[in-house]
Amino acid sequence: MYSVSTEIGNNLRKNTGFASIDVAFTPGYAFDGRFFVGVPLTLSNELFRTDGVQTYESNFRMGISAGYNILSHDNGIVSLSAAFGGSVYTQYHRSLYYDLCAKWGTSAYFKPLVGLGVRYYQSLGNTGKDRLCLYVSIGFRFN
User: Fold this and answer.
1) pLDDT (tens digit, 9 = 90+) per residue, 83-103?
2) By CB neighbour count within 10 A (0-12 exposed, 13-18 middle, 19+ buried), where does 67 fall?
3) Which of 5, 6, 30, 33 could hold 1 in an S-S bridge, CB 3.0 to 4.6 Å?
4) How far apart, in whole angstroms, are the C-alpha atoms of residue 50 and residue 117?
């Protein structure tokens, strides 16, 4: 199983200005057509707003994910997945992330997917505040 997706997220808390655009490649393995695991490799471009000053940062994240196709029929699939990971390379803001996402797609070998998820970023050290983000995902999966 391989998947590629673009994720656009925005902070749900108004006290910390944050938005991100991510591109994720996830190699993995699908068991029995329902359960799957993967290693998300994510390139992220993040916007931080602090006291009216905007800064951009590039970030590389790596993690582990697991998911389950909760509904699978001839017309498509609905899957739910969870992921955990952290910053591998970053300029300043190091963090861990916890992710939960629901995706809808076709049941063909090549599956276009659309998803909606929530991601919590836990800041490490004195690198900023924790952030809770809602994101939209568009991509595809092979399996």
Assistant:
1) 999 999 877 788 999 999 999
2) buried
3) 30
4) 25
